[in-house]
Amino acid sequence: MLKTRNVYIDTEVFISNNFFDSTNLKRLFQFGKDETINLYLTEITENEIRNNIREEILTTQNELNLFKKNIASKGKVLKNFEKFKPYFDLPKLEIDLNLKELSNKLEEFIGEGKIKYIPYELADIKVVVDKYFKQMSPFNGGKKKHEFPDAIVLSAIENWCKKYDQKIYFISGDPDFKTYTSGNIIILPNLKILLDQINRQLDIDKKKLIDWILSVFEYNEHIIIEKINEKFVETIYDEIGYTIEATNIEVIETTLFDPSFVQENDSNDEYIFQIDFDINFTAQIIFDDHSLSFYDKEDDCYYNVGKAQRSIEMHITKTAEIAIEAHYELGEEPESAGVSVTCTYTSTPSEYDLLDEAENDYD
């Protein structure tokens, strides 16, 4: 159950959710638009978001320019293939124009989500400086001067809560906030936990339905695990292949954690859950072997690059999104319900994660 309908969104939430490309952020802003919850920012956080957008665009521009240079000089043979021609015609990344486009999206989110501002002038600078010298959160692990904006934001929120006798959720996965304690500020590490609590609160009059759909989830756990495993392997095959090749992927075991109920679609009896899961799997990894290669500075490339193959076993924790279609009938047992289960998304290890695992196993 919600302890408050006030929600503060930290910069980290926008970064970790790729700014405006996140379904969970869109779900949260819809709740703000409907005035189900009250969303808040400070001008400090808004400026941090804008700065991070600019930094990521600049980083992407450098990577894109390097890619275009390399493919133009070393990959000309690909022009003979129609499907590769778009790689040579990638549009130029205009920093100012693209920054303006994303800034406009931020303003739309703020307006449509009915976000309000907590004045940062409410911060008590004396308290902030005192925490800095005592190395208290968010200055954990040393006197990190770059944490002053976060400390000012927290102080402003604390004083806003005291002034208006309010509590507020502070959403951030930043580890510096983990140890922060307050009677007014409730730290939550991610959006899916908050969305779960909002949906359960909204459906407090539908408690029987919520209990029923959770029972349906539990009853179909073996099917859900199968769907997650299939999507996990499929996603690795789809996304891996630029620097390494992964083959013969086999899942050994998958364990689910408690699901978060993030969305209900009344129109088609669909219920959306997000869930963290532990997965243990094996795979064959094929990658470039530079042990006998040499670099030619004039040609700007490596010669005599071989191929290496390693068998790996990896145990990681990832996240999946599950859609369950089930029509609720009062008194119907979960095991009797007609259910359709779809895994719409799983996060997977990157190519670098798999390569590191291959090299570690070899060592």
Automatic annotation (TrEMBL):
* One Pfam family recorded for the sequence: PIN_12
According to the entry, every stretch annotated as the DUF4935 domain falls at 7-177
Its recorded name reads: DUF4935 domain-containing protein
Its ancestry begins with: Bacteria, Pseudomonadati, Bacteroidota, Flavobacteriia, Flavobacteriales
